[in-house]
Amino acid sequence: MSAIIRPIRTTDRSQWDTLWQGYLSFYEHELSSEQTELTWNRLIDEDFEMHGLVVELDGELVGLAHVSFTHSSWAQNRDLYLEDLFVSPTVRGQGFGKALILALDEVAREEGARKVWWETHKDNAVARRLYDSVAELSEFVKYTRAVD
Q1: What is the mean pLDDT of residues 32-61?
Q2: How far is CA 43 from the centre of its chain?
Q3: Distance between CA 86 and CA 48 in Å, rounded?
Q4: How far apart are CA 130 and CA 93, in angstroms?
């Protein structure tokens, strides 16, 4: 098996859709087709500051990572935020999630980012085992507030 990690391409749309729906299903979440279309368009728009990487295994997409840069009042350069990470259940446990995370180091380095960061659900034990192997758990607690 030959796997590569590369930026998402416009020709990836149908395979990306399958992974995206798998990701949403994992989190038991539904998005409108309009939001999915908007997300896709943002990922392929070179002028929009959202980027996608994929894992391609023998011509088939088996993983994705969606990232964007965040500005900081504490540093000159932006940080890289990993918003979505998903690997197809058919190939989980083969190191593709870890490879995607490690590939983000180069994306961050190219922009002079000081760190890559992400969040996950507190009960996502499988992902947290991976995350514990490649990063430090932050001592910060996240709060959110819905805006009406």
Answers
A1: 97
A2: 11
A3: 22
A4: 10
Rounded to 5 degrees, what angle do the CA atoms 35, 41, 44 make? 145
pLDDT for the residue 2 = 85
**pLDDT (mean) for 76-90:** 96
Task: Report which of 68, 66, 98, 72 is spatially closest to residue 80, judged by C-alpha positions.
Answer: 68
Which pLDDT band holds residue 1 (cuts at 50, 70, 90)?
low
Predicted local distance difference test score (pLDDT) of residue 138: 94
Task: Give CA–CA dist 138/133, Å, rounded.
Answer: 14
* Phi and psi, residue 144, nearest 5°: -130, 150
Give the chain's domains with CATH numbers. Answer: 3-134 (3.40.630.30)
Across the range 84-93, mean pLDDT stands at 96
Is residue 32 packed enough to be buried (19+ CB in 10 Å), middle (13-18) or exposed (0-12)?
exposed
